[in-house]
Structures are given as C-alpha cells and as structure tokens.
Amino acid sequence: xxxxxxxxxxxxxxxxxxxxxxxxxxxxxxxxxxxxxxxxxxxxxxxxxxxxxxxxxxxxxxxxxxxxxxxxxxxxxxxxxxxxxxxxxxxxxxxxxxxxxxxxxxxxxxxxxxxxxxxxxxxxxxxxxxxxxxxxxxxxxxxxxx
Length: 146
Prior knowledge:
Blueprint: E1 6-14, E2 17-24, H1 38-45, H2 61-67, H3 71-85, E3 94-99, H4 101-104, E4 108-114, H5 118-137
C-alpha cells in the first residue's frame, strides 16, 4: 500500500470520549466519492450505519451522505458503528467532524467521538481509519466483511 492517505496525527482524551486530529495527505483522497463503491462496501459490511443520525444537512439520508462526504466524516461514522457493535450504548454515541483549512492547513480534520470511554473511542478511530484506508486500496477488501 502506498503511504497512508489518511493518518491520525494526535489524540486527546475527553471525559466522555476522545478527540483526534486526522490528516488527509492529498486532495484526491478528500472525499469518499473519489473511490468508487467505497461507501457502498462500507455500508454493506456495517449495515447498522444506515441507522446513524447525521446533522450534515443531507436530505437524502446517511447512505447518500457517506457516498460523497469527507473521508474523516466516513471514518467518524465507521468508528461509532464499531463502538456500537462492540457493546457501547448506541443511543449515547455521537461524533463530530470539523475542519478549518485556513487555520489548520489543507487536509487537517478534527474528529471527536463521545459516549464511550476514551480508550475505546481511540481504538475505534484507529480501527476505522485502517478499515477505510484498506478499502480505498484493496478492491478485494470491498467484497469481504469488515
């Protein structure tokens, strides 16, 4: 695999979760729509994602949003779903993905997860990042369960 197109730069524990800074290394990897069928494969592997609420403003629901959104936003939702399937109370889980390229530089995103212990949130973000990156470069992984 080439150098990771998305990497976690830092973590910070917060009382009810964690906050992380992610770096997308190239504009060509900024959006999920840059990798054909990526969101569909992730949704197929993690069907609980279709129940996720999202305040993104999309009138077409989370499935459509994940088909053309920022990669770290997809990672946020994958991490939340990994927490849920591992037993964290789904109703208490939530996250946010924000960015300010003028302040932080191009490709720098801030992802926070809440509703689970900080170490669980950190592990979920690490796993979610690895899964999304693997699916970006390995077409076979798109046909296998996560």
